[in-house]
Each structure stands twice: as C-alpha cells, then as structure tokens.
Amino acid sequence: MTGAPRPARNPLTAPVTSLPRPAEDAALDPEAMRQPLGNAWYCVGQSRSLGRTGLRAVELNGEQIVLGRAPDGIPFALRDRCPHRGMALSKGRFDGDTLMCPFHGWRFGTDGRCRDVPTLSEHDAADFSRIQVQRFPVCESAGFLWVNPRLGPAAGPVAAVPELDFKPAGSLVVELVVEASYDLTTLSLVDPGHVAFVHDSWWFRPSKQLREKVKTFQPVPHGFVMTSHATTTSSPVYRLLGGVPEVEIEFRLPGVRLERIRAGEKRVANYTFATPLTPDRTLLTNALYWSMPALNLLKPIAWPLMRQFLTQDQQVLQHAQDGLDRKPTMVLFGQGDLPSQWYFRLKREALESARAGRAFVNPLEQRELRWRS
C-alpha cells in the first residue's frame, strides 16, 4: 500500500495533574525531550561479532557508524562516510591498521585521520593531513560494544555502561528490532503493569491471578533500583536456582534494565538494553547470564523462550505506537506508572544538567510503590 508518509514517532506524555511541571520546563527545548539522549552509552552489538580485521556497520540514532578493532585489539567507532564523496567506509577494505574507501582508495587510520590519497599527483600540493572522519567514544562491557554518539566535547559524566559482578559460565542473547520510538520502547523496561497481560506464559506466570505488589524503590546514579527482595519460587525459572532467590532490578539512563538474581552462591543476571536506530525504530537486546555450568545444557530450550518473551514486547509496542501515531499523548496514572514518570524526570535532569554545565543530580527520592500484577 502507498500513501502519505507517516509522521515521526515522538510520543508525548500527559503528566498526571497532581505532579506540577518543573519551573525549568520553559528553559528546555521541548524537542530535546522527544529525542534519545545525545550524550549516553548505547549497546550496538556483541563484542564477539567484531573480529581483528573485520568491519561492522551499525545505525545509532540516525547516525551511520563503522566499527572495527585497532591493531592493539581496542575497538574504534567512526562515522561511516568518506568525506570525499560520501562513500560508506564499511564497504571498503580494512587491513587491521587502515580503512580504504572503495570509491577512490582514500585511506584512514583507526583514529579517523586521513593517511593517504593515492590519486594525488606528486606535484599536487594539496594537504590531506587535516582531513578527518568523525570518531565516537566506544568501549566494551558485559560482552557488548557500547558507543556514545555525542558530537563535540563531553558534557559531563553520563550513566555508566552495565557490568557483570560475576564470571558467567554461560550466556544467551536475543536481539529484536521494534518499529516504535525509543521513549515508548524504553518505558516497557520500567512498566510493571504490562507483565501480567503481555507475558502471560505457562513457563513465566503459571498463576493467572493478579496479586498486590509492594516494592521499595530508591535512587541510584542516573536511575533507580527496586531494592533486593525475596521473590516467590513459583516460576520454573526461579526453581532452577533452588532456595528463595533474592532479586534486585535497576534502571539507569539512557535505557538499561539490570535484573540481578542471587540464590546462595548461584547467580543469574538478566539485562535488557534499548538502542535508538531511527526516530521510529529501536533495537531491544536481552542478555541472560548465569554462573552455573549445568545450565548450559538448557540453552536449546531457553533461547526460543527468551525470543518469545521479547517478541511479545515487540508486538505490543508496535501496536501501541500505531495508537500514539494517531494521538501522541499518554495518561500516566497510578503508582504503577510512577517509574515511567521517573524516566522522564531523569531524562529531563540529564538534559538540564548538560545544558547548564553542572553535575547530574538525581531528582528522585526513596518511595514504596503498590500495584497489582
């Protein structure tokens, strides 16, 4: 089918009337709140996907980026565009030291600086030493590559990339692209109310009854955490650990959910990352890690269940985005929606502190929340 192009997907929130808008709202560009944070770490793929001499092209918030490894094995991230005629550098060759543009053979070091223009005559005085490809900060953590797409100088500390506090005996990773905006997708990471309806599976929620939940939340750097608590052992996933697991769930900017589960010496971590690709496409990455080698035998069963779980989120978010395209407002209501409101408060503070050139100050306070799920 053809027709008029769809509008950019920017869901706007209609704040609950009992929460006054901060006085600084007028000073902040409203458009900035509709965009993913420009100065933050985003997951762009697994570390093992990047070999010594290979290149990977990725998309991040509308920016085309090429990834590779320098001779010392450290990853680099460059704008995937030759400044000469716009050719994608990821389409060229990489010898482990320089990238060669396939259009005219220009060569660039892994630092982005032009090393050679082979078409120049020896009598041509043109100086290519000042030509440079934009370079982006990149690092590795928890088995993933992380890129900060900021342009220009750093604007103060940002949320740290996720780490693992134990050595995993095994892991599973599922990635899905969601045809929805970054904000809407990220809200699913902090929304406790959707679980009973979207993820109602025999292996995840054997009980069909809604139950009262009472949890304590407290602020942490650039986010908040649902403090460690003993959970039930009704889920088959938890029963694999034995005993009564302790669970802690953290959310941090820009869109990272970290679930840490401990049962004695046994450890499981379930991490989920949101990565903006374009204004209406978001990558969801789910990584499951465990410390017990015996669980590696369950990989053939666990992977399709994980994918089913993430696909449920993918489908419901895409349908919800269709509704927001028609009317781009939300009504965040009740204590179960407070974490969603907290996300926007954290995002606003990140933008305001960067604009003012000051340190980030978490605007949240410890709070007990009640909802049914």
Question: What does this protein structure show overall?
Answer:
The protein has 373 residues and is of the alpha+beta class. The chain folds into two domains: 47-147, Rieske [2Fe-2S] iron-sulphur domain (Rieske Iron-sulfur Protein); 170-372, START domain (Alpha-D-Glucose-1,6-Bisphosphate, Chain A, domain 4), CATH 3.30.530. It is built from six helices and 21 strands. The protein has an eight-stranded antiparallel β-sheet with strand order 13-19-18-17-16-15-14-21. Strands 3-4-5-10 form a four-stranded antiparallel β-sheet, with no helix packed on it. A hairpin with a 2-residue loop joins β3 (56-60) and β4. It is globular, with a radius of gyration of 23 Å. Mean pLDDT is 88; it is low at 1-26.
Structural class: alpha+beta
Q: Going across the major beta sheet, what is the strand order?
A: 13-19-18-17-16-15-14-21
Number of domains: 2
The CATH class of the largest domain turns out to be: Alpha Beta
Order of helices and strands: EHEEEEEEEEEEEEHHEEHEEEEHEHE
Terminal CA distance reads: 39 Å
State the helicity in percent bands. Answer: 10-25%
Fraction of residues in β-strands: 25-35%
The tally of strands reads 21
SSE layout:
Elements: E1 12-14, H1 30-33, E2 42-46, E3 56-60, E4 63-69, E5 75-79, E6 93-94, E7 98-100, E8 107-109, E9 114-116, E10 135-136, E11 138-141, E12 144-147, E13 170-178, H2 182-187, H3 195-198, E14 212-220, E15 223-230, H4 236-239, E16 246-252, E17 256-263, E18 266-278, E19 281-290, H5 299-326, E20 329-331, H6 338-356, E21 367-372
Parallel strand pairs: 1-20
Antiparallel strand pairs: 2-12, 3-4, 4-5, 5-10, 6-7, 7-8, 8-9, 11-12, 13-19, 14-15, 14-21, 15-16, 16-17, 17-18, 18-19
